[in-house]
Amino acid sequence: MNQQTVVENIDQYLADDMPVYDVNGDKVGKVKMFSTAAGYLMVSQGAFEKDYLYLPFRLIRSIDPHDVFLTESKEMLTTDYTNPPKINTLTEQRLVRTPDGALTSETRQVQMVQSGYDYLPAKISSVDVGDIARRLAVGMAVYDAEEKRLGDVTQYDTPRGLLVVESGIFKPRALFVPFSAVQSIDSDAFTIHLSLPRDIIVKEHAMLPADA
Q1: CA–CA separation, 20 vs 68, rounded Å?
Q2: Fewer Cβ close by (within 10 Å): the C or N end of the chain?
Q3: Residues with Cβ < 8 Å from 188, sequence gap 6 or more?
């Protein structure tokens, strides 16, 4: 019942830039973005709004047309929720029908996260690895969920479902982004848009995965 109430209120009221207050009425920050699938708010803090909190929906006490109110203190939030929830990337094999009715195997890469509603595993994205690979090209410009450029594709690994995105000349930085983070590919514009913001991508994908 609590989960259903939260979702209903979010659908009605929640929007980017809404102010967020703690249990004592102190302002925590502003809503930067949110995911009803994962059950999390990304809240910006500080004078320049470049520090973020990742707050599960279960901490929401109430939402009205103007504000979000939480059940915990600002001190607890800044201690426990400065890192994004861990995203696990899984690979699944599925049988799908082709246009002529035959069955063929399809490899899908799936992103899973601990739900911000109830701690249970939640699926936040699923992509066809083969479809993504067919549309990729080295040199494509990569943008995050807020349209900020992360760099360019320097290589990609289809078996592991990974993009290598590099930026910078004198101090180049590489990000190892799973195919499942791809929101869209525009072959004409030679661009890739991801479903995650820069902060999460840098924190989660700045190192090559251990199994790669």
Answers
A1: 5
A2: N
A3: none
